[in-house]
Amino acid sequence: MLGVSLSCKITNLNQNLLGLLEKCKSMLELKQLHAVVISFGLSQDDPFISKILCFSALSNSGNINYSYRVFSQLSRPTIFNWNTIIRGYSNSKLPIYSLSIFLKMLRLGVAPDYFTYPFIVKASARLLNQEIGVSVHAHIIQTGHESDRFIQNSLIHMYASCGNIMWAQKVFDSIQGKNLVSWNSILDGYAKCGEMVMAHKVFESMSEKDVRSWSSLIDGYVKAGEYREAMSVFEKMRAVGPKANEVTMVSVSCACAHLGALEKGKMIHKYIVDSGLLVTLVLQTSLVDMYAKCGAIEEALLVFRGVSKSQTDVLIWNAMIGGLATHGLVEESLNLFKEMQMVGILPDEVTYLCMLAACAHGGLVKEAWYFFESLNKCGMTPSIEHYACMVDVLARADQLTTAYQFICRMPIEPTASMLGALFSGCINHRNLALAEIVGKKLIELEPNHDGRYIGLSNVYAVDKRWDDARSMREAMERRGVKKSPGFSFVEISGVLHRFIAHDKTHPDSVETYCMLNFVVRQTKFSFYKDNKEKSLKDTSMGDEFFLF
DNA sequence: ATTGATGAAC
Questions:
Q1: CA-to-C1' distance for A189 and B4, Å?
Q2: Is A151 exposed, middle or buried (CB count within 10 Å of its CB: 0-12, 13-18, 19+)?
Q3: A95, A493, A502, A508 - which has most CB atoms within 10 Å?
Q4: Which regions are annotated as PPR repeats (predicted)?
């Protein structure tokens, strides 16, 4: 009698535990349930452990390392358990672990099944390591799994991710009975590799298209820098395609950001809200960036402040901090950096780059050194961009010799853009001797860059070295370097207007120049007021620029 | 239980 009721209770307990595990939301809850499982002395190989493994390996709020610790306690893990852990790591930050666990599995003589392979192919894709991918592919052929459509589709993605679109196409061609995923994978592959003509061709030849097909095409155009094309595909999608999702909108808002199309961007934002799309952190980040790049820093802040702090990550902070920095809102940018650390988000290399950019705008040399050293202290290696930013800070602050020495002491070769920053510094601060050294080096580095010749020629002109000035322009002509016009874009009421320097073809050209002259005069006026120690003659050098 | 997509700086 007692035995019956006990076993009855245990059955109930089992049922309840399973139910609770199904509903589990966080690692905290999971650990509590795990503790119950252990304290009741339930068998290791029971269904609870599998559930615990699944949640901690696969859930968004899971913890793959916890999962692995549980897994490693199992005396006889099932193929399902192996697959769970391999799948978990393939989605993690360390997909290489999928492969080491896979190898361990092989060593122990456990045979992988057709569920295992898509996960390890995905892991190789995420590692962007074709060599590993090829070995995995070879193993798939050896074990006779090469006609599995799931595996083939993941192989297309793997080869395309590694930049080998030819092999991706080969796998695609070999598939008997291609499905939508196969088509989307090859389409996305071409888009990823920047082959938009092919991507478009694939897209057109598809009999069935879903939101991913459209999104891949749009994103491909965005990644290829063809933002207008991306926008027009999106318009077409709205007219004749499926409903866009949050992934589509990330690409579309990115296109708006690069076009500086604020009105369109606002419409996109409205569309997102109106259509009740899931507003993910990724989407919020791209909206912050879009508003910042379109000059609407207040709107960017509004989106940013709408995200609850506990939901944020380093990317959205970087987008906001970087946006403030490029708007010259240096103080705000520094404050946000402090706030970010108070919230407990660790800055990364990009954060420091944003901070250095802020310092460059604010002329904050001391702070820049502080950030540059923090970067090293936190165990990060400064990249070429960090060095370039530092040079920019020093050059703008008239610490030209320090900047020059900084470049000489760098452990890496200076880039042309870095020397370019120093060069502009030399010109702006009238260090003509250093300008000449740097300018010559720049022409050596980039013999086809028109601006370098013109810049150096202008330097000589200021120094009244007319012969040298002329010889620069002659050298430029001799080498067939063409002066390429720079474009400016202005968006008014959703219409994009393009301008070239000295352009008089626009219908509102007269009014535009009128306004421009007014702005230039105002700027100069306030500049002279701030720089009384500098002579008017000196600062008028800007006028001589680009008259060439 | 499986495959295909998205965000930050230059």
A1: 10
A2: buried
A3: A95
A4: 78-112, 179-209, 210-244, 313-347, 348-382
Closest protein CA to C1' of nucleotide B10, residue: A385
CA–CA gap between residue A192 and residue A125 (Å, rounded): 13
Query: What average pLDDT does the structure give for chain A?
Result: 88
Q: What's phi and psi for A492, nearest 5 deg? A: -125, 125
* Helix ranges restricted to H, A193-308: 196-205, 211-223, 227-240, 246-259, 262-274, 281-293, 297-305
Q: How many CB atoms lie within 10 A of CB A389?
A: 26
Considering Cα of A63, then A69, then A72, then A77, what sign does the dihedral take? negative
- What distance in Å separates the CA atoms of residue A205 and residue A200, rounded to the nearest whole number? 9
**Distance B10 C1' – A285 CA (angstroms):** 18
**Residue A542: what pLDDT?**
40
pLDDT in tens, A374-391: 999 999 999 999 999 999
One-letter amino acid at A356 equals L
Q: Which residue has the tokens 């994103």?
A: A219
**Token pair listed for A282:** 């990724």
pLDDT of A365 > 80? The answer is: yes
Closest Cα partner for A259 from A462, A490, A505, A3? A490
CA pair distance A369, A371, nearest whole angstrom: 5
SS3 assignment, position A268: helix
The whole-number Å distance from A319's CA to B9's C1' is: 9
Cross-strand bridge partners of residue A491: A496
What is the CB neighbour count within 10 angstroms for residue A245? 16
pLDDT in tens, A145-157: 999 999 999 999 9
- Is A390 within 8 Å of A352 (Cβ atoms)? no
Neighbours of A207 (CB within 10 A): 6
User: In this structure, what token pair is assigned to residue A291?
Assistant: 């508003």
Sign (positive or negative) of CA dihedral A153, A155, A159, A165? negative
